TrEMBL record:
Function (record text): Catalyzes the oxidation of 5,10-methylenetetrahydrofolate to 5,10-methenyltetrahydrofolate and then the hydrolysis of 5,10-methenyltetrahydrofolate to 10-formyltetrahydrofolate.
Entry binding sites for NADP(+): 170-172, 236
Catalytic activity: (6R)-5,10-methylene-5,6,7,8-tetrahydrofolate + NADP(+) = (6R)-5,10-methenyltetrahydrofolate + NADPH; (6R)-5,10-methenyltetrahydrofolate + H2O = (6R)-10-formyltetrahydrofolate + H(+)
GO biological process entries: L-histidine biosynthetic process; methionine biosynthetic process; purine nucleotide biosynthetic process; tetrahydrofolate interconversion
Superkingdom in the source lineage: Bacteria
SUBUNIT field: Homodimer.
One GO cellular component term: cytosol
Keyword Ribosomal protein: no
Residues annotated as domain Tetrahydrofolate dehydrogenase/cyclohydrolase NAD(P)-binding: 144-289
EC number(s) on file: 1.5.1.5, 3.5.4.9
Pfam families tied to this protein: THF_DHG_CYH (PF00763), THF_DHG_CYH_C (PF02882)
UniProt name for this protein: Bifunctional protein FolD
GO molecular function: methenyltetrahydrofolate cyclohydrolase activity; methylenetetrahydrofolate dehydrogenase (NADP+) activity
């Protein structure tokens, strides 16, 4: 085998996200030609700096792809009833096809009640129990953006996923659990491990595919990985090192690189895919709402 074939591949999330966004732009142009303008409402409560950056990027990407974005910024002391009333208004608005409430919400607001208030057909995060249940049953529903983006990176990197052993590190509702459901649907053998699992490194060493989503900087190093594994790092952790602030993943990138066949960098791996799949979900939601009842075009 040539040396080049044995070198680990950097999985370029930025480039893949650009391809997904180009697909979305084409789909939006097609919808607009039929007189349908997709609309995405993004709701931010409070002024958490990271959330502000995420929301700004979501709005920018929407505009770039031709999706109308409607931003709702509410003060941190907004009460739950006011937020629920806004969601009710957005559910009823014909201009809005997708609704995203940025998480986390302030502690005085019940997150679950808010997510359940969103019309499942407009739930572009895929967090409503109707969509969570649909995903676990293998129905065609709106699925969470980060795991959907990770799956696309894995499909592009590995080709066939059937029969591969995937270990998902982390069991959050946003990433770990839906990631496991998507991998199961792609015919992987799936193990979900978490902070209470025994001998995490030994469990991870069984994996052909590792998806790391725990929020612990550089937790996973080469000792946790099987040679040739494909690693998707969902972690975005800010740390101070050598007198400066930097972003690192849940995987110790430099250590893992000597062993893996492919790995996502942080930043520039999974992050851009989350936003690209939000746009894809917005188009899918618009199609279902606006075109389902129409006769096919001649
Ligand atoms: N906060 C962190 N990730 C997400 C996400 O995927 N969706 C929403 N709504 N909030 C988040």
């Amino acid at each position: 085998m040539s040396r080049a074939a044995t070198l680990p591949r950097l999985i370029d999330g930025k480039a893949t996200a650009a391809r997904v966004l180009a697909e979305v732009s084409d789909e939006v142009a097609d919808l607009r030609a039929r007189g349908v303008q997709p609309g995405l409402a993004v709701v931010l409560v409070g002024s958490d700096p990271a959330s502000q950056v995420y929301v700004r990027n979501k709005v920018l990407r929407a505009e770039e792809t031709g999706i109308r974005s409607l931003e709702h910024k509410l003060p941190a002391d907004t009460d739950e009833a006011t937020l629920l009333a806004l969601i009710e208004h957005l559910n009823a608005s014909a201009e809005v096809n997708g609704i995203l409430v940025q998480l986390p919400l302030p502690a005085h607001i019940n997150e679950q009640r808010v997510l359940q208030a969103i019309d499942p057909l407009k739930d572009v995060d895929g967090f409503h129990s109707e969509n969570v249940g649909g995903l676990s049953q293998g129905r065609e529903v709106l699925t969470p953006c980060t795991p959907s983006g990770c799956l696309r990176l894995l499909q592009d990197t590995c080709g066939e996923l059937r029969g591969k052993h995937a270990v998902v590190v982390g069991r959050s509702n946003i990433v770990g659990k839906p990631m496991a459901a998507l991998l199961l649907q792609a015919d992987c053998t799936v193990t979900v491990v978490h902070s209470r699992s025994q001998d995490l490194p030994a469990l991870c060493r069984q994996a052909d595919i590792v998806v790391a989503a725990v929020g612990k900087p550089r937790l996973i190093d080469a000792n946790w990985l099987k040679p040739g594994a494909v690693v998707i790092d969902v972690g975005i952790n800010r740390i101070d090192e050598d007198g400066r602030s930097k972003l690192v993943g849940d995987v110790d990138f430099d250590s893992a690189l000597s062993l893996v066949s492919a790995i996502t960098p942080v930043p520039g791996g999974v992050g851009p895919m989350t936003i690209a799949y939000l746009m894809k979900n917005t188009v899918a939601a618009t199609r279902r709402q606006c075109l389902a009842a129409r006769p096919a075009q001649p």
